[in-house]
Design goal:
Two copies of one chain form a homodimer. Chain A contains five helices and five strands. Chain A is an alpha+beta fold. Chain A folds into two domains: 76 residues, Winged helix-like DNA-binding domain superfamily/Winged helix DNA-binding domain (Arc Repressor Mutant, subunit A), CATH 1.10.10; 42 residues, Ferric-uptake regulator, C-terminal dimerisarion domain (Dna Ligase, domain 1, 2-Layer Sandwich). A three-stranded mixed sheet of chain A has the order 4-3-5. In chain A, helix 2 crosses helix 3. Chain A binds a DNA duplex through helix 2 and helix 4.
DNA sequence: CTCTGTGCAAAGCGTTTGCAAACGA
DNA sequence: TCGTTTGCAAACGCTTTGCACAGAG
């Protein structure tokens, strides 16, 4: 059981019930779109506003408490910030999974091959999940 | 000098002056946002409509003549379809560059580690380009 | 008690649609 | 000529903003 109250405060965000529930929903579901987050929170707060979702998502993004995951051909989903990882997306059902990969050698190669100084890698694999294959 | 007339037709798209100019602009600039594409085409067609840009971008995407590149924290850019490659993005000036990387071993690893059947890899490196370092 | 967050309604903005005229093949 | 494309204006949908009241600290 997570105590997001303290974690939110550590990110300079007041621990309102709505925010705690966003954190909890993301923790349970892993990755959620704005739409799904809204539907989910509606079950708990029957008069929550979409504006509240948007305001909180934006504040949480600024505070680096959550992160946006951009996926080809679909709308973005959001996840709690955690250690660097890559994503697997099912082309058919849209399921998103995390996967940990050791990418330092790739980054090293890119730093050598290009004139960029790489700080971040965003890697999305698309294909079919077990159920959809 | 490219003859996009035939290439567009090969994708079942009529070769209108507006489309030829979109193809040409993407070829010259590599990666462009809708906004920049519009500004650029305005110089050649002083009464071109944003709707024309959108309609053509969507048709060209469906025809796989062009592709969308989703970039963290920024709006998407579009590029002519070419061999698979990854992208380098400058966090400061927004410049986007292509880089060819051999990713088959990574895909193989992911196929082994996960239950997904991977078909596509989208890889974006973020950092600072030479000018911005 | 003070300041921030919430919910509602309105505004904003990027994108799409409908239509008549123009154009490509 | 026939079907498609263009440009314009209106419509749309997602996101943001303003404001009064409620709630966290």
């Amino acid at each position: 059981m997570n105590n997001y109250t303290d974690i939110l405060r550590a990110h300079n965000l007041k621990a309102t019930p709505q925010r705690l529930e966003i954190a909890n929903a993301l923790n349970v579901n892993g990755h959620m779109s704005i739409e799904r987050l809204y539907e989910t929170l509606l079950r708990k707060f029957n008069s929550i506003s979409l504006a509240t979702i948007y305001k909180n998502i934006n504040l949480m993004l600024e505070a680096h408490f959550i992160q946006e995951v951009k996926i080809p051909n679909t709308k973005s989903v959001y996840e709690l910030t955690k250690e660097a990882h890559s994503h697997l997306v099912c082309d058919k059902c849209g399921k998103v999974e995390d996967i940990s990969l050791e990418l330092s050698s790739v980054v090293q190669l890119v730093n050598a091959k290009s004139s960029f100084n790489i700080e971040k890698v965003d890697l999305v694999f698309s294909g079919l999940c077990t159920n959809c294959q």
